[in-house]
Amino acid sequence: MKNIKYYLEKAQKEQWAIGQFNFSDFTQMKAIVEAGEKMKSPLILGTSEGESKFFGLQEAVALRDVLRKKSGLPIFLNLDHGKSFEYLKEAIDAGYDMVHLDGSKLSLEENIKITKEVVKYARKKGVTVEGEVGRIGNDASRLYSEKFVIKEEDLTKPEDAFRFLKETKADLLAVSIGNFHGIEISGIDPNLKLDVLKEVREKIGDKFLVLHGGSGTPEEDITGAIKLGIVKININTELRLAFSGNLRRFLNSNKEEIAPYKFLVDSKDSVERLVERKINLFGSADKA
Ligand code: 13P
To answer: Whose CA is nearest to atom 5 of ligand 1?
Structure first.
């Protein structure tokens, strides 16, 4: 199997993006992989710290291996939004392919310091590192009833991104360009600031850029961002909503049903269909 950098380079050259789809239980994980299989798409499976603590780091690695073998797909496992060196080290030691250090709450100096430490450790194990500069809105992936307001000071500054990449040598960079984790209750998030993305791209050149908070982002913003160099897009809230919404609906109308393999079918199918749609939108079909 080719490594993640091979696919990121290919995506950059051909202007498409790899989806990172988050999960915290096996039904979701299986649904994501089955969608990837159908679409012949490379996949990144993501777990936040919370998701990975519920699922288990070693369990995630073992099941990635099983699903890789069974599907024949390039499937990569990413520890999403790790907050400490220690936890990312645990994920790396367990066998994750990629880790994301979220140092966005730190000063740029502190962020650079800890990301450098992670890069140094990850390199020895052949693991890819994603860093983050600027503050991506909202800490959690969920539904919001209030409007999201973009603060100018939270956007990624091109010169900070340049310095961060130069000093840390991180492989990927997550940017704050008006994106945020979660979806507004309307289902559509405000437009991305593609002009900010363009400025960052012009300053840092050919580096791999990541878009977090992909749920609810208008399709034209996604395709516009891919054209400007985004090669990885993270999706979580839409998957959670599809899964939980269908589970709730099914159990409410089938009060006697107690078999998980029956009451999880609609949830699993809805996750699968959603991932297929995202793969189409990101242009990663037939790229595995
Ligand atoms: P959404 O929940 O908005 O899709 O964001 C997911 C994400 O960026 C995970 O890192």
So the answer is: 213
